[in-house]
Write a structure and sequence with these properties.
The protein has helices at residues 5-52, 66-79, 113-120, 163-213, 228-278, 283-314, 327-344, 364-380, 435-445, and strands spanning 87-91, 97-100, 125-131, 137-144, 155-161, 323-326, 348-350, 359-362, 387-395, 398-405, 449-455, 459-467. The chain is of the alpha+beta class and 480 residues long. Strands 2-1-5-4-3 form a 5-stranded antiparallel beta sheet, with helices on both faces. The chain has a 5-stranded mixed beta sheet with strand order 7-9-10-12-11. The chain has a two-stranded antiparallel ribbon with strand order 6-8. It is rod-shaped, with a radius of gyration of 52 Å.
Length: 480
């Protein structure tokens, strides 16, 4: 199995952290066990002196005769209950060992560091841990019984071997080390397998992203877990779908724009060739041709300007020339430009001009562009005999313009997308499909809103809301 960079980094960092943590825990437990074992031995050594020594020795023990002291010492040792695990030496006032629990005589001059330390200490007791002349590790505790006389005093010395204690301690430390290693492995192995699983999912996601970048939007990632990686895979799938949709819309947009540009160019070229052949022989035909050329040139210029506006919006370079203006007057002029067309196309355009002003701060040219675009759409999507109704109202310093038609309407599936770039709900109707996107952005830059309400086969209503200056007013709606 090829281990990825993320897995290796996680493995190294986790290993260091867990190892240090387990080492700290093992060291702490080892220190605690060592202290516990040695304190237990120390308590065992001191138990003999604290419990029954007063029965045999007292503060005047140093004043008794040597024979009496030796008798008391033997009696004490015989009654000592821990003789099997603790060696007891009774030391007389001269510093000589006169009785031992094991019955063996202790040679003169044997080293007893704890005895010497007890004599030198004000506490009259001392504990020593070290090795005997034979190399055995022991712990010994000495308690003085009488007064110190010439660097000597009667005392009890308790000692025991630490070999078994240290062996048990080493066994416990070894067990701790084994448990620590097992704990590290139990942390690293499942974690590594899980991380590697996630890394493989990331690799598949990366491969899928590369395929999407190459244009294959049908690629899907095989990952069934409902976690963050699963959410990422879902997001990649959604992104691929969105890109695929956007790419399709872009291609349709290019095809539509190409067709829309070709139509006026074809008309201009055709009439140009006709006029070149006819010359000035037919003034009526010449005038008609010039009218068509001017009309198609204007149409072509509007389309180019619309594309430029869309490009400016995409690059956040659409500028406004802000000045005080009357939005209703701008709407009046926009409606006026479509009246003749409505009559020519056998459609009713209902709008009642009003003398009430709706002052606002905005770009009159851009606001006109919005009104023209929306009214043009209403006419385009309304069949002959249909009605386009335009009304206004003012409330709370907001001008609301409603432009309704009885056209074919927009489906519920298309309605949320009609103001998006490149989106065109009805491919059979001429137009680039970016007019509403531009209009919506212009309204937004004026701190207003553009909303659509539509029902398929019934009609569409575009609601434009713009902030205005002045007092609250009410205007008539859609009446001649």
């Amino acid at each position: 199995m090829r281990i990825g960079i993320i897995t290796r980094q996680w493995l190294l960092k986790t290993f260091l952290i867990v190892s240090l943590l387990m080492a700290a825990i093992a060291a702490t437990l080892s220190f605690a066990m060592h202290s516990f074992y040695y304190n237990t031995v120390r308590s065992t050594l001191s138990a003999g002196y604290n419990s029954i020594v007063s029965r045999y020795f007292n503060a005047g023990a140093a004043g008794t005769s040597d024979e009496e002291f030796n008798r008391i010492a033997r009696a004490y040792i015989e009654s000592y209950s821990l003789r099997d695990i603790v060696d007891v030496w009774v030391i007389d006032r001269h510093g000589a060992v006169v009785a031992t629990s094991d019955g063996f005589r202790v040679p003169d001059g044997v080293e007893m560091p704890d005895y010497a330390q007890a004599i030198a200490s004000d506490k009259r007791t001392s504990t020593w841990t070290g090795r005997t002349a034979g190399g055995e590790k022991i712990m010994a505790t000495t308690y003085l019984l009488g007064n110190v006389n010439a660097d000597a005093a009667s005392a009890l010395r308790f000692s025991t071997s630490l070999e078994k204690v240290d062996a048990q301690f080493r066994s416990d430390v070894l067990l701790l080390i084994i448990l620590s290693v097992v704990a590290v492995l139990l942390t690293l192995v499942p974690g590594t397998l899980y991380i590697e699983k996630l890394v493989r999912a990331v690799r598949r996601t990366t491969d899928a992203a590369n395929e999407i970048a190459k244009g294959d939007y049908s690629v899907r990632i095989d990952y069934a877990e409902h976690d963050e990686i699963g959410a990422l895979c879902t997001a990649v799938h959604d992104m691929a779908d969105e890109i695929s949709t956007a790419d399709k819309m872009k291609n349709e947009f290019i095809s539509t724009v190409s067709h829309e540009l070709r139509t006026p160019l074809t008309a201009i070229r055709g009439w140009g060739e006709t006029l070149r052949q006819v010359g000035a022989d037919d003034p009526a035909l010449t005038a008609r041709g010039i009218d068509v050329i001017l009309k198609e040139t204007t149409r072509l210029g509007g389309m180019v300007e619309e594309l430029l506006d869309f490009s400016r919006i995409r690059n956040d370079r659409l500028s406004l020339r802000i000045a005080q203006m009357d939005a209703v007057s701008v709407l009046d002029e926009a409606v006026l430009t479509f009246r003749e067309r409505a009559v020519r196309e056998s459609k009713q355009l209902l709008y009642a001009p009003t003398a009430v002003e709706a002052p606002m701060l905005g770009d009159a040219g851009r606001i006109t562009q919005v009104f023209v675009n929306v009214i043009d759409n209403a006419l385009k999507y309304t069949d002959a005999g249909g009605t386009i109704r335009i009304g206004t109202s003012v409330a709370d310093r907001l001008l609301e313009i409603r432009i309704s038609d009885t056209g074919r309407g927009i489906s519920a599936r298309d309605l949320p997308h009609v103001t998006e770039k490149f989106y065109k709900a009805d491919q059979a109707v001429r137009g680039s499909g970016i007019g509403l996107a531009v209009a919506s952005e212009i309204v937004r830059l004026h701190k207003g809103t553009l909303q659509l309400e539509s029902e398929r086969g019934v009609g569409t209503t575009v609601i434009i809301t713009l902030p205005i200056l002045g007092e609250e007013r009410s205007l008539e709606y859609g009446q001649e």
